[in-house]
Design brief:
Layout lengths: L1 H5 L7 H13 L5 H7 L4 E4 L2 E6 L4 E8 L4 E9 H4 L8
Antiparallel strand pairs: 1-2, 2-3, 3-4
């Protein structure tokens, strides 16, 4: 995430990404339903992948979550235009 916001083009994502990181680090979501209680706008896309809207939906963050082991893997961070070019289910 740091590499992303240190890029001058995406510097305005830093505060929102830091906030998301703080929330995710302290969370103990047992499943996607619990996650949705905290992040109502998150999109559950299957196979453990979740899409978070960052900075008022200016950016997209795709995370693979292993709820059993409480591990999150960041699979993608980018703009909507960049997000539209990926396959969220396989990235």
């Amino acid at each position: 995430m740091r590499e992303f916001w240190e890029n001058a083009e995406y510097a305005d994502s830093e505060t929102s990404l830091r906030s998301w990181y703080h929330d995710a680090k302290s969370a103990s979501w047992k499943n996607s339903n619990e996650l949705k209680l905290q992040y109502k706008s998150a999109s559950i896309v299957g196979d453990g992948r979740v899409v978070f809207n960052i900075k008022g939906n200016k950016f997209r963050l795709v995370v693979l979550i292993d709820y059993d082991f409480q591990v999150l893997f960041i699979r993608f961070i980018g703009t909507h235009e960049q997000y539209d070019k990926i396959n969220v289910k396989t990235i």
